[in-house]
Design a protein that fits this description.
- The protein is α+β, with helices and mostly antiparallel strands.
- It has one helix and eight strands.
- It has a single domain, classed as Lipocalin (Beta Barrel).
- About 20% of the residues lie in helices and about 40% in strands.
- It has an eight-stranded antiparallel beta sheet, with no helix packed on it.
Amino acid sequence: MMKQTFAVRCVIALGLMAALAGCARLGAQTLDMIGEWQEPTGAVLRVDHCGSQVCIWIEALSRHADAPTDIHNPDSRLRARALCGLEIGSGFTLQDAAHATDGTLYDPKTGKTYHGMMTADGGKLELRGYIGVPLFGRSQTWTRPVAPVRNCASVPVG
């Protein structure tokens, strides 16, 4: 009877260790999506938790940006707001370690807002913006910045 109890305890202990290892790995993988990402024109964006969801903010503007303000916004009252620090992605829900869905993406280059989803894969983050269903959309791939990022809040405008 004592051998059986010891064996049961060992099996339970091994099961708990495996579960904890799996949780630690899942937690580490979700960090793959979190952090700074560079989009193709050079702007750097920060993906981070915002409450229980994931959001995206502009961290550094591209040298090719039309202006440092939200000039393409359809609401004329918002056209003077700074792009630096602007939240352009909101409401994303982590589905698993590498996928976030059900968010919205604002494109300051056009002033349009889309439904969005993100997929992290190693050093790449694929964003898909769409209207209605993901089939009717466009994807963009972001990569990790190769050099330290100068936050646009610390860079003089002009």
